[in-house]
Predict the 3D structure of the following.
Amino acid sequence: MIAEIITIGDEILIGQIVDTNSAHIAQELNKIGVSVHQITSVEDEHEHILTTLKEASKRADIILITGGLGPTKDDITKKVLCEFFGDSLVRDDAVLRHIEFLFEKYVTTPISDLNREQALMPSKAIALHNEYGTAPGLWMKNAEKVFIAMPGVPFEMKSLMEREVLPRLIKEFKRPFIYHKTIRTYGLGESAIAQRLEDWENNLPVHIKLAYLPSFGTVRLRLSGKGLNEEDLKFSIEQEFEKIYPILEDIIADVNGENEDITITIRELLNTKNHFLSVAESCTGGELATKFTKNPGASTYFKGGIVTYATKAKEDILSVPHAIIEKNTVVSAEVAEEMARNSRLIFKSDYAISTTGNAGPDKGDSDKDVGTVFIGIATPEKVFSEEFKFGRNREQVVKKAANKALEMLLKELISK
Amino acid sequence: MIAEIITIGDEILIGQIVDTNSAHIAQELNKIGVSVHQITSVEDEHEHILTTLKEASKRADIILITGGLGPTKDDITKKVLCEFFGDSLVRDDAVLRHIEFLFEKYVTTPISDLNREQALMPSKAIALHNEYGTAPGLWMKNAEKVFIAMPGVPFEMKSLMEREVLPRLIKEFKRPFIYHKTIRTYGLGESAIAQRLEDWENNLPVHIKLAYLPSFGTVRLRLSGKGLNEEDLKFSIEQEFEKIYPILEDIIADVNGENEDITITIRELLNTKNHFLSVAESCTGGELATKFTKNPGASTYFKGGIVTYATKAKEDILSVPHAIIEKNTVVSAEVAEEMARNSRLIFKSDYAISTTGNAGPDKGDSDKDVGTVFIGIATPEKVFSEEFKFGRNREQVVKKAANKALEMLLKELISK
């Protein structure tokens, strides 16, 4: 069962927004055994969208479209679908009532004709209820192919996928099983890992693939396979995992690397002991706190953090003694350790992580090279730190430092 | 001059990574007058990549490819390009020396044959120097079409675009001028704005387009045009802007909306007065601090922030009186204002922003509805706050709250 995703919108092609919708849709489809063969982004241009629909329908069974369902002139997805299906737009009364309801309840400006026109639907389409917005989704069938259109607003699309699209696809199509197992490693680069795995990889069964997913200092390895028998598939992938585990044992940080988000594993480990965490950030500037608070349940383990971007704030708020900064400079093991120690005391937490470094492009209040970062960890038993060189690219220094801090904490928690 | 972008990699099609490369490439191409007609993401699969290359070369003059240049088995871009061009791989000594240099200087593991093989290049290709990595870019010409391949690692790709690809494209192709003007508005939805602009939009010259770019509570409006005469083009777009300004005056937050990043405008305004900023965050969990520290120059206006996720931390660290929390609950105007006031005092800053709210999915330590957020602002003259309802979606509540806080601060700074 093959799907293609088409995202419509000039704003993607001029690079003003990043297409995050496709990744979400692809993830959700993969979970139900539907493979995405291609993702295509095209402009708000009638002929181009039409051609893209025609081409996609030659290759795929399911075509998912996002964008171009808004109330404005540049939103033409429904018109193009009408042409493709030889259909015309008619008013859908249930959709109209929902639009009127949303305006009454949530919108302060009066409802307009443009808003009401969003209730026009191709006559052959089934409207998919959009709880959060005025643009309904569409479900249209042609021979054995299904065309699904969803609004481009990410949270509206996500809700439509969950409530309308996935349940309908599960009902409509017989799908093979897809199984992934992802392992998070740290400390070795992609090619060094590949070299270790060379013999094993050469003998991998054809229905199983290995992918390397490097990301700012960590490499996740994903084994994935497709098959008609779920038990056999799982068994064969777990068997391959048993083979690589001893080869990579020293660098595996997390055998449940499916959580792209390492903070979920950290939360689980802290929760089991009812332990709490806090942070003290300099060069990561809030990135660590943001990572910990991104997911629901943050308050069950994360007390908070202090971002002391200015050197003086490290003294005033984190109580790092002036003499320590004077002697070692602000980018030093001593300052990182003081920051972690004091964050733990101030927040009354069990663990604390700190970062201090030069993210660049300028050196700031320290003579250390751009890219130098010290990461400190305070635990109930000890305080320690490590020094890293993360290169000269600001964004990369911040992200690598945050990832490395998460890894150091994870290692510390796992070693208990 | 038409370009297409092809991104290669299973990890995109199973949704494990979001393709941010395409947006960056599209942005940079637009700046030099090259339009991106289509973005296509395909798997690491020989035949599929080959077909995609063939199709793209029918439509576009410039084909940019990212991904599939790594050292591992699943990296096959160079092989496919060889087939497409009827070429074969030969060793490039300069590339090999660079790989050996990088390993000597930055990598602790020994260099392997897989790494050395990255110096194999199609004989007809020009290698594009990759300062930050072992995979060089490629530049290949066929009739009047150019094919460019770059590694998928974002910071390597960015550096290659800037130093190698864009200068070569500028030299090689005559391009029309593209001009954008983007205005940031707040307070009205997309369709309400469209209604106000209806008459004007109906009379827009054909070479100018208007796009609506909504994002968590703000809508940016982008006028864009393409033409052979730079002066005429700029003049006609500025003329249209003069027409819409009076129609939208009350909702325009920033006429230089080109900065997708509003913090750059805030930094400029604070810098002119040598004023400093700090934050105190609850529900935004570090998102605000991260936004302010994302760009270089943060230390010229941002002192730092405190993330008090736990209610107790608001008392202990931000000195919000227990009685005020008791009386008003932790999600209240009073607490938001205390947080802003005290952040300003603790950091000795001129301005401070605070957030306190229920991001959900659970209510936490307050009886206020999920989605309720109070944003506080402290200035040298006053402290005030506003209440907002940002819906029930956690991610959306955090992002909308952070954006709204930036807008409130921007309004306050502009009103001086």
Chain B touches chain A through 108 residues (CB under 8 Å).
